[in-house]
């Protein structure tokens, strides 16, 4: 075959590093964004992160949205700024003095005397620490303390001993000489410690231990112990007639016994499970002005990036000998623009959401209207994937609470009038109906479906059951009271 040369034209879509960075920043939460920027600032000496501004400054400089078109000019200016003219090359480097002045800040210095010693709070006491402290105060032998310590290490976070004692004996080295009787004796000691119910092997034993720890003069204590030991399953199924027949008591007595049992703690160790709080920084705040709800950027959540004044002057004065800083200056410019672009996109999407959900802010969940990603994407001429990134892990502070932007989206159910009702609104209606029901005659799923149908909302019984379960509301027979 004779070799030949061919000319072929093809089109390929390639993501530049700057565009990749823009997409990555867009999908980060506010906390993750701040962590990422802190990392980049440490690596790039041209960048400086300002933290010397107050919340009052943020409130005064916050931007509001009356409609999605009110930020089009801002978006255009940011998108248009990503041009070749903004990229600094080593061959034709000309310091942009005006840009540097607008985006640089004075280099701050700190004196060591200005820093105060950090006060580290004491670590909360764990369940094991709490129990081991009680063991150390007990008048028992060292041998018994070691066995009880072994059982304490075998407890789960709820305070239960789920491992069988026989299996535990088999796992222990034979040279320790610990038999089943030793473990049972140690377990009896452990179950006398605080919190009551610790060391139980199942729920029944846990509740019985707590009831036994109550003073003997507590009314109906003995009857409650009998109910837990013998009739707990019947009581859990709300078959109160059967429990009354077995106990030979009236409604008032059974109600007092039930109250005594329900006040017990099924997870005695949970109070010692301290987990670090997950803080949420809202990206958007919603306020009402002139009768209209508007979305504002939370400026206190946006990192304030500037070009470092010291290194900017080096580039201005000695750019021929500081070529290594030119690429870092470009990266700094791109990062600042990408952060601005991220804020602008979040503001635009939030503006449309608030515009569509005006009734929610007035009347709550029952007034939520159906909304899908495609509707926002078509309004703002964005891709659905972009809207999905914007609404994930981005939060809105409203007078009704803090919500993730995704919360305002939901499927719809058709109504008799030809309209649509949001699934969120239907859940709110179901919750409201159940809260207002007669506890002695709770509403069944069929009855709730009939009530909604009378209001023009046609929802099948199985859909009602699905929404009810998503709200963690038990079935009608389990909601029935005495």
UniProtKB/TrEMBL annotation:
This protein's UniProt keywords: DNA-binding, DNA-directed RNA polymerase, Nucleotidyltransferase, Sigma factor, Transcription, Transcription regulation, Transferase
Keyword Mitochondrion listed: no
Domain spans labelled RNA polymerase sigma factor 54 DNA-binding: 327-480
GO CC annotations on file: DNA-directed RNA polymerase complex
Skewed-composition ranges (Low complexity): 55-80
GO biological process: DNA-templated transcription initiation
Ranges of Acidic residues composition bias in the record: 81-99
Chain segments annotated as transmembrane: none
Alphabetized Pfam families for the sequence: Sigma54_AID, Sigma54_CBD, Sigma54_DBD
Positions of the UniProt region annotated as Disordered: 52-102
Every RNA polymerase sigma factor 54 core-binding domain range: 122-311
GO MF term list: DNA binding; DNA-binding transcription activator activity; nucleotidyltransferase activity; sigma factor activity
Domain of life: Bacteria
Function of the molecule: Sigma factors are initiation factors that promote the attachment of RNA polymerase to specific initiation sites and are then released.
Similarity field: Belongs to the sigma-54 factor family.
Name assigned to this protein: RNA polymerase sigma-54 factor
Natural source organism: Nitrosomonas ureae
């Amino acid at each position: 075959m004779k070799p030949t040369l061919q000319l072929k034209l093809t089109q390929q879509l390639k993501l530049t590093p700057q565009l990749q960075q823009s997409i990555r920043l867009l999908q980060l939460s506010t906390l993750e964004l701040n962590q990422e920027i802190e990392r980049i600032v440490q690596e790039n000496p041209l960048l400086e992160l300002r933290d010397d501004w107050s919340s009052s400054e943020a409130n005064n400089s916050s931007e509001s949205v009356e409609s999605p078109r009110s930020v089009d000019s801002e978006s255009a200016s940011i998108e248009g700024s990503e041009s070749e003219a903004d990229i600094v090359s080593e061959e034709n480097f000309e310091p942009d003095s005006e840009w540097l002045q607008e985006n640089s800040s004075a280099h701050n210095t700190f004196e060591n005397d200005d820093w105060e010693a950090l006060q580290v709070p004491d670590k909360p006491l764990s369940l094991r620490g709490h129990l081991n402290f009680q063991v150390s105060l007990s008048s028992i032998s060292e041998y018994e303390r070691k066995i009880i310590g072994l059982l304490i290490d075998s407890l789960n976070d709820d305070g239960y001993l789920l491992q069988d004692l026989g299996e535990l004996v088999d796992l222990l080295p034979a040279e320790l000489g610990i038999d089943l009787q030793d473990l049972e004796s140690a377990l009896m000691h452990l179950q006398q410690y605080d919190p009551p119910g610790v060391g139980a092997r199942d729920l029944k034993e846990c509740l019985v231990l707590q009831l036994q720890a109550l003073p003997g003069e507590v009314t109906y204590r003995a009857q409650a112990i009998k109910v837990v030991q013998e009739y707990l399953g019947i009581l859990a199924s709300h078959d109160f007639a059967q429990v009354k027949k077995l106990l030979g008591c009236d409604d008032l007595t059974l109600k007092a016994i039930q109250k005594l049992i329900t006040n017990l703690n099924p997870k005695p160790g949970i109070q010692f499970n301290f987990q670090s709080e997950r803080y949420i920084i809202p990206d958007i705040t919603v306020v009402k002005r002139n009768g209209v709800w508007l979305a504002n950027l939370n400026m206190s959540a946006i990192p304030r990036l500037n070009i470092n004044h010291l290194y900017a002057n080096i580039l201005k004065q000695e750019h021929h000998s500081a070529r290594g800083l030119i690429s870092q200056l470009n990266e700094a410019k791109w990062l600042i623009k990408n952060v601005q672009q991220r804020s602008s996109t979040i503001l635009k999407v939030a503006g449309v959401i608030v515009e569509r959900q005006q009734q929610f802010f007035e009347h709550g969940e029952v007034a939520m209207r159906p909304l899908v990603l495609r509707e926002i994407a078509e309004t703002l001429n964005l891709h659905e994937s972009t809207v999905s990134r914007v609404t994930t892990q981005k939060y809105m502070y409203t007078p009704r609470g803090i919500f993730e932007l995704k919360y305002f989206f939901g499927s719809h159910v058709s109504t008799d009038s030809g309209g649509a009702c949001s699934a969120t609104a239907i859940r709110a209606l179901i919750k409201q109906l159940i809260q207002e029901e007669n506890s002695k005659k709770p509403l069944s799923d069929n009855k709730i479906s009939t009530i909604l149908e009378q209001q023009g909302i046609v929802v099948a019984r199985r859909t009602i059951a699905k929404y009810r379960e998503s709200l963690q509301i038990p079935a009608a027979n389990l909601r029935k009271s005495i």
